[in-house]
Design goal:
Blueprint: H1 2-30, H2 60-64, H3 79-98, H4 102-124, H5 129-145, H6 151-176, H7 183-196, H8 200-222, H9 234-256
Helix pairs in contact: 1-3, 1-4, 3-4, 4-5, 4-9, 5-6, 5-7, 6-7, 7-9, 8-9
């Protein structure tokens, strides 16, 4: 009975996450094009036909339709089920981490914002201000009232998060006479710092830089040194921020051990 009672909420959270992931796909597709995320209803990007409700079931419909539009039979990008799968998996993981409550709800919203940012940045090399700018004060308030941060920790997180990358970008531009990091990354790290606190920044910067360096160098070497395949930094900041929700406390304890 205890096992069943723990499995059911996890399954519900997975379904909920996948459904939200379907909406995130709309955001990922429409926000860069400055289109409404509400109207019109979901439709095929190729033939423009409205998607029937039974063809819009997260993950399942993609499998049943063999990854093709029912009307025009054009292949549907695997990014769509991938986003739904990632969102569903994170929903379950956050439920197991925090249980059902305000912490689950706000960390899930935070993770959803990072998912949208990640996929937009990968495709368009931009981090939309419409997410990061309002996200800074909104997630700072959530960090204080929901995650238990002090005002000081959250405000320092915003200033230090934005300040660190601003200093890196300014230094690179001064030395190389070229832009090395966009303003979107600066605002993203400020949003992360406001929600997770300044203490999170060492973890986030260390993990994002390490993973980003390994993957970025590997991609460039695979493409024979062609720098046009360089990967944006936003996805690595997002991965590190989500990782901090699960392993940040352990990292800080190990760091502070003498």
């Amino acid at each position: 009975m205890p096992v069943a009672s723990s499995i059911v909420p996890a399954v519900i959270s997975a379904i909920f996450g996948a459904v939200v992931g379907s909406f995130l796909n709309v955001c990922i597709y429409r926000i860069p094009e400055e289109k409404s995320i509400v109207f019109p209803a979901s439709h095929c990007p190729h033939c423009k036909k409205a998607i029937r409700f039974y063809d819009n079931i997260p993950i399942v419909s993609y499998i049943l339709l063999l990854g093709k539009c029912r009307n025009c039979h054009t292949a549907i990008s695997p990014v769509y089920p991938a986003v739904e799968l990632v969102t569903g998996a994170l929903s379950v993981a956050l439920y197991l981490r925090y249980g059902i409550g305000f912490k689950y709800f706000f960390t899930f919203i935070f993770a959803c914002a990072l998912i949208v940012i990640t996929f937009i940045d990968i495709k368009h090399q931009i981090i939309p201000d419409v997410i990061s700018l309002p996200g800074i004060p909104l997630f700072a308030l959530a960090g204080i009232f929901i995650m238990g941060l002090s005002w000081k920790d959250s405000m320092i997180g915003i200033l230090a998060g934005g300040g660190v990358l601003f200093a890196v970008a300014a230094g690179y531009q001064l030395l190389k006479k070229a832009e090395g990091m966009g303003g979107g990354d600066i605002k993203l790290l400020a949003m992360i710092g406001g929600f997770l606190g300044w203490q999170s920044l060492l973890f986030v910067i260390l993990i994002s830089s390490s993973v980003g360096a390994v993957i970025g160098i590997s991609v460039i070497l695979y493409n024979k040194g062609d720098m046009k395949y360089a990967i944006p930094f936003g996805p690595f900041l997002s991965i590190a921020a989500v990782s901090y929700l699960f392993w940040g406390e352990t990292f800080m304890k190990l760091l502070l051990q003498r």
